[in-house]
Amino acid sequence: MSDLIWVKRGILEFLWQVNRPVSLRDIGEAVNLESRRVNMHLLHLRKKGYVAALDNGSYVLTDLGKEALGFPRIDKDLSREILREQPYEKSFHFYSGIGRPLGISSSNLIDLCEKIREIGFDSFEFHFTRGDFERWIMFLGDLELAKRLETIRGRGEVSEEVREKIYDLIRQRCNELQRKIFSS
Fold first, then answer.
1. What is the Cα–Cα distance from 178 to 172, expressed in whole angstroms?
2. What is the pLDDT of residues 56-101, one digit of tens each?
3. Terminal Cα-to-Cα distance of the chain (whole angstroms)
4. Distance CA 106, CA 92 (A)
5. What CA–CA distances, in Å, run from 14 to 50, 82, 83?
6. What is the Cα–Cα distance from 109 to 175, expressed in whole angstroms?
7. H/E element, 61
8. Is the pLDDT of residue 116 over 90?
9. Would you state the pLDDT for residue 6?
10. Which three-class secondary structure string do you get for 63-131?
11. How far apart are CA 179 and CA 184, in angstroms?
């Protein structure tokens, strides 16, 4: 892969990681390029539809950009599939350790989000450090959300702040999926 392709991919990955509007200067710092060269790459990425420029001069990743990174397009049908109720045997079952079930389960992503906030920290830590949440979310069909959780877990930090971040991330994703379902 050429250096130009690596730079463009690096820009897309950075925009995906931050998941918010970002300035030209911040993108340049992230990919270690001067603004003029970053602007050239952003023009190309905008023409392809991978990046959008906002009125305030910042940039965001588009759904097409997410597809270029390998994430499936989230439409109404996939949103419904991700949020649908799972039968008991496919629900997420909470434990505080190996062989220590809590008798608490979640049958859908919205319920998992709320239970993450309610369960004891020992159960959160047990499942988070093992990657259980991201595996179940991947099973539901949300590869992007699973990857975001994996990225956070990869930092090696487990705290109440991380738990709140995971809760916020899943809650925002649930809201986004519900908007897709109910949009015309």
1. 10
2. 999 999 999 999 999 999 999 999 999 999 999 999 999 999 999 9
3. 40
4. 5
5. 13, 25, 27
6. 11
7. strand 59-61
8. yes
9. 83
10. HHHHHHCCCCCCCHHHHHHHHCCCCHHHCEEEEEECCEEEEEEECCHHHHHHHHHHCCHHHHHHHHHHC
11. 10
CATH number of 3-68: 1.10.10.10
Domain range annotation of the chain: 3-68, 76-182
Query: How many Cβ atoms from other residues are within 10 Å of residue 143's Cβ?
Result: 17
Would you say the pTM of this structure is higher than 0.70? yes
Q: How is residue 31 written in tokens? A: 């990919």
Read off the tokens for 23. Answer: 């300035």
Distances (CA, A) of 138 to 90, 104, 109, 132, 134: 13, 20, 11, 10, 6
- The 10s digit of each residue's pLDDT in 7-51 is 899 999 999 999 999 999 999 999 998 989 999 999 999 999 999
Torsion of CA 80, 151, 126, 98, to 10 degrees: 80
Q: How many residues does the chain have?
A: 184
